[in-house]
Amino acid sequence: MSRAGLTEKKMFGGIGFMLNGNMCCGVHGQEMIVRIDPGKTDQTLGERHTRAFDLTGRAMRRWILVAPDGLSNDAALAKWVRAGANYAATLPGKR
Asked: What is the pLDDT of residues 27-48, one digit of tens each?
């Protein structure tokens, strides 16, 4: 995916992809982290191969994890990258 304002940053023990300074997606262990609209959290968690992103015992409503089985082809990966980037694009940019 090529998009103006997209950068990489090491985080969560993996790599994060930032759009205008806001993380949109990344890698945590074997799973993909995706930032989503908090109003769509429950709907998104109803999809196969997803779970809440929870490092502290308290799930984060703007973040989900997608298991490797949910990233089995280019179309599936692109769907999650697009979802994260589209939401991050709605946020004010950071420097």
From this structure: 989 999 999 998 898 999 999 9
Q: What is the pLDDT of residue 56?
A: 83
- Average pLDDT estimate for 49-72: 90
Domains of the chain (ranges plus CATH)?
Answer: 6-88 (3.90.1150.30)
Q: For residue 88, what are the CA distances in angstroms to 14, 32, 83?
A: 19, 16, 9
Beta bridge partners of 15: 10, 27
Which is nearest to 78 in space by CA: 40, 86, 94, 38? 86
Q: Share the mean pLDDT of the chain.
A: 91
**Residue for token pair 């599936």:** 76
At residue 50, the 3 state secondary structure works out as strand
CA distance readout (Å), 36 to 6, 63, 85: 17, 6, 9
